[in-house]
Amino acid sequence: MKLGIEESFEFNPEGHFWRIRDYDDVAEDASNYPGAIVWEREGTEDEGGWYPDDVRAEFERLTGKAEFGNAEPGPFNLVEMVADEAAGFNQSCAYGYLVDGHAVYCHNTDWLYAPRKCRRTWYTGGEVRDEDCRGYKPRQ
Asked: Rounded to an integer, what is the distance from CA 61 to the centroid of its chain?
């Protein structure tokens, strides 16, 4: 079983939901999303972009491991591979890789399914700071 967290946004016709999917199981709605839904709840307007505590707790309960902690590194990120020269490891966090105009990807392999989008300083415009992340490492 390979579980992953998914957020469906407000513009989704179904509404705003948090879901945990099993990507080893074929879903009935596989034409739109791979993986069967094993847990879901409706999202709220103020939750976009960072996993709420109850979603993280449910993920940990289902997998038996914390989202952060000694995970296997994930596959390479195609977006980073095709990015232009404006991309690179240039964030305050040593793990942050900016794809200019798109996102910062975190390469801390202690996160499950790394590399993955960082939802901190760049994403929030500074409202949530990189330095507050459990996996933060200052750039030397």
From this structure: 18
Pick the closest to residue 119 from 56, 75, 76, 65 (CA basis): 56
Contact 54, 44 (CB under 8 A): no
DSSP character at residue 69: S
Residue 116 burial (C-beta neighbours within 10 Å; 0-12, 13-18, 19+): middle
Which residue matches tokens 């979603």? 55
pLDDT tens digits, the chain, 140 residues: what are they? 777 777 776 566 677 888 888 877 665 555 555 678 899 998 877 775 567 778 888 988 888 776 665 444 445 577 777 776 667 888 999 989 888 888 898 888 777 667 778 888 988 898 888 998 878 899 88
Domain extent listing, the chain: 3-63, 78-132
Which secondary structure element, helix H or strand E, spans residue 60, and what is its range? helix 53-63
The CA distance from 9 to 18, in Å, is: 9
Closest alpha carbon to 133 in 60, 67, 61: 67
138 contacts 121 by C-beta, under 8 angstroms: no
